[in-house]
Amino acid sequence: MQALISLYDKTGLDSLAPALIEAGYSLIASGGTAKALRGLGIAHTKVEDLTGFPSLFGGRVKTLHPAIHGPILADRSLPEHVRELEDQGWSPIDIVIVNLYPFDTDPSVELIDIGGPALVRAAAKNFASVAVVVDPSDYGWIRESLATGITIEDRRRLAAKAFGYVSAYDARVANWLEGDDSPLPTHQLLNLRRTRELRYGENPHQPGAFYIAEGAETGWAQAQWLGTEEPSYLNFFDADGAQRLLERLGDRPACVIVKHGGPCGVARRDEILDAYVEAFEGDPLSAFGGVVAINRPLTPELAQAMLERPKFDVLVVPSVVAEAEQIILGKRRRSRIAVFPGAALTVGIRSVAGGYLLQPPDELETVEEFRLVTSRVPSQAEMTDAWMAVAVGQAAASNAVTIVKNQAAVGVGQGQPSRVDASRIAVTKAGDKARGGAGASDAFFPFPDGLEALIAAGVTTIVAPSGSVKDDEIAKVAEDAGVSLLFAPRRHFRH
User: Fold this and answer.
1) Of 6, 119, 133, which is closest to residue 65 (Cα–Cα)?
2) Would residue 125 show up in a list of annotated catalytic residues for this protein?
3) Is pLDDT at 319 greater than 70 in this prediction?
4) What is the pLDDT of residue 30?
5) Could you tell me which SMART domains the record lists for this protein (predicted)?
6) Rg of the chain in Å (alpha carbons)
7) pLDDT band at 310 (very low <50, low <70, confident <90, very high)
8) What is 197-212+219-339's CATH number?
9) From 65, 81, 125, 311, active-site residue
């Protein structure tokens, strides 16, 4: 029995190679893999010794040879194939272990792998006889299976993963060759792999699953879900929305609570427990059963304090102490904890009938980009609240109007076809807390009524994008009321 190994990422080679030797396999290795095996003191045959040809053209041609591909592709069930192998003096290759140059980290023509994908495709095509391994995370169970043999079902599954792996690699090369550095290139090639069956989709009668883009395993692909129940589609959706807003709020201890896709509690404080309490108090009725995200580790003390508030479905944390996990899940068995490592935002994709809509992430402006259009100058604290109100509104469904006071959301009106209705909801939610707070609208005020609702509630600083034909009238209403009006450079619709 023979195993061919050609690896860029040699993680796990030190344990897999000895297991193959022990199971009776002879090892064939290319270039750097042969060097690594030599360093480990593991017997092997170099590819060039098997083919009789040296590595050519600076390494561009190493494994592209009949003496390599023939023993991989030969159909062992066909006598004529077996006879041809014997005539050539070749022994079958039963396992092919390959991973490719990391093209996406440093794209160049020289990192376009040719021999590696050819080996993978050849082995995957002949899965009836050959096991192809492209993922180091599979090495563990592969080692355990060597004694009894890798089953046809496992080989088929490995082949499917291998074709997906090569397809994703080709997609990254194709995108690079387009030469288009924009976030919306001419071709957007996706290769998705299902990694998790969800409890259900948006509703219990709809199935749901989580997919990752091959070769881009970041963010939720790396998250760890703790708890007895699988997360649902909406758990993922709301947890992602909460985490995105949380990351925009900076390094200060912060908490975000999301329910049905929109923020209903947001706060920043010097201590994370205070941030959680303030976020919850922003709208305690809506927060019940929502998704809570914090940007500090979950400690036993924090976990115990959280149990004093009504239940949440999901708690998103950067890390968790084992004792804290037991405290939460021991008392709330249907809740889940998501340990999220963080990730950069990527292109947003939505399906429509017959196609897809793509757009880059919505960038949040800085306080310095606001333009004051009234004589009243807001304080530094009011400016901070105004910026935070914009951040909360960016995460809310449009039309959205938000009120923030002392770095805590006190009123969020969202998902309204009418902007004045969004203002009225925000004011109603805030009550007396609106007085002295900062308000934000995710788009311009088409009429003064939405602005007037905020002013009547006691909001003293208001920010909204400009662009309305009534901008001058809006500014005059604010000036006459003695409040600060700031025009922002961007609209933040979200649907």
Assistant:
1) 119
2) yes
3) yes
4) 87
5) AICARFT_IMPCHas, MGS
6) 29
7) confident
8) 3.40.140.20
9) 125
Contact 1, 24 (CB under 8 A): yes
Ranges of beta strands (E only) in 251-389 are 254-259, 262-268, 291-294, 314-317, 336-339, 348-352, 355-359, 371-372
- 206, burial (CB in 10 Å: exposed 0-12, middle 13-18, buried 19+): exposed
- Torsion over CA: 105, 110, 113, 116 (sign): negative
Find out whether the peptide bond into 295 is cis, omega within 30 degrees of 0: no
What is the residue-averaged pLDDT of the chain? 91
Q: Is 46 a catalytic residue?
A: no
- Strand 224-226 vs strand 401-405: parallel, antiparallel, or unpaired? unpaired
Classify residue 187 by burial, with Cβ atoms within 10 Å: 0-12, 13-18, 19+.
exposed
Tell me the pLDDT tens digit for each residue of 214-253. 666 789 999 999 998 899 999 999 999 999 999 999 999 9
Residue count (the chain)? 495
- Rounded to whole angstroms, how far apart are CA atoms 389 and 399? 14
pLDDT tens for each residue of 187-214: 777 778 888 999 999 999 999 999 987 6
Residues of CATH 3.40.140.20 domain(s) within the chain? 197-212+219-339, 367-488
CATH number assigned to the domain with residue range 367-488, chosen from the 4 options 3.40.140.20, 3.40.50.2300, 3.30.70.100, 3.40.367.20: 3.40.140.20
Q: What is the pTM of this model?
A: 0.81
Q: Which helix (H) or strand (E) holds 211?
A: strand 209-213
264-290: average pLDDT: 95
- Confidence (pLDDT) at 59: 63
CA distances, 307 to each of 310, 315, 358 (Å): 7, 12, 40
Beta carbons of 392 and 372 less than 8 angstroms apart: no
CA angle 454, 455, 458 (to 5 degrees): 95
Among the listed residues 65, 260, 311, 470, the single catalytic one is 260
- pLDDT value at residue 344: 76
CB 255 within 8 A of CB 245: no
Among residues 228, 229, 227, the alpha carbon closest in space to that of 325 is found at 227
**Confidence (pLDDT) at 152:** 94
**What is the assigned CATH class of domain 2-177?**
alpha beta
CB-CB contact of 435 with 458 (8 Å) = yes
